[in-house]
Each structure stands twice: as structure tokens, then as C-alpha cells.
Write a structure and sequence with these properties.
The chain is mainly β and 99 residues long. It has a single domain, classed as EutN/Ccml (OB fold (Dihydrolipoamide Acetyltransferase, E2P)). Helix content is 0%, strand content 34%. It has no helices and 5 strands. A 5-stranded mixed barrel has the order 1-2-3-5-4.
Amino acid sequence: MFFAKIIGTVWATVKDEHLQNASFEIIQPIDANRNHAGKPIIAVNNIGAGEGETVMYITASEASIPLPAEMAPTDATIVGIVDRIDVDPELNKEMPTKK
């Protein structure tokens, strides 16, 4: 699972039959410190998460598992709304690089 922030919505009136009851969000992947971690992607949202919320999402073939249809055509699916992220500063120190 990965963290992201919902930064927008995609409206699609015509879509695959397996995704008829799903909405689509534009999500910005973030790390545990809420820093950007890559480019925005589109994710299926069937849990009701809204713009501005921090969410957890899954990718690849596992992204279709939470959906009602077997093997729905998705590369990313939102699976949870994050209430809080607690990171221990001592455990989150940058690892030294090997030379």
C-alpha cells in the first residue's frame, strides 16, 4: 500500500461496465512525511474519499481485488482514508548511503 492525497476528480460518464458504480480521483503519491513521491495518477475510488483527503491505495493487478467485479480494468484503487500518520523521527532518519 501507498499514501496519496486526492487532488482532483475525473468525471467519466462512459466507462467499462465493471466500473459503472465507481468514481475516479486524481491522487498525488506522498511519503510518510507527506512529501510528494512521484507524479499524480488516476485511481478508482469506491470508498467515498474526497478531495483533499489523505488516502491509502494499491496498484498493479491487486488494484482490482477490492472491486466487486473480478479483474476490473484498473491500475490503482483507493482502499482507505488516512486519519493520521505518526512517524518516529529517530526511526525515520535517512539511511547512510553505501560508497
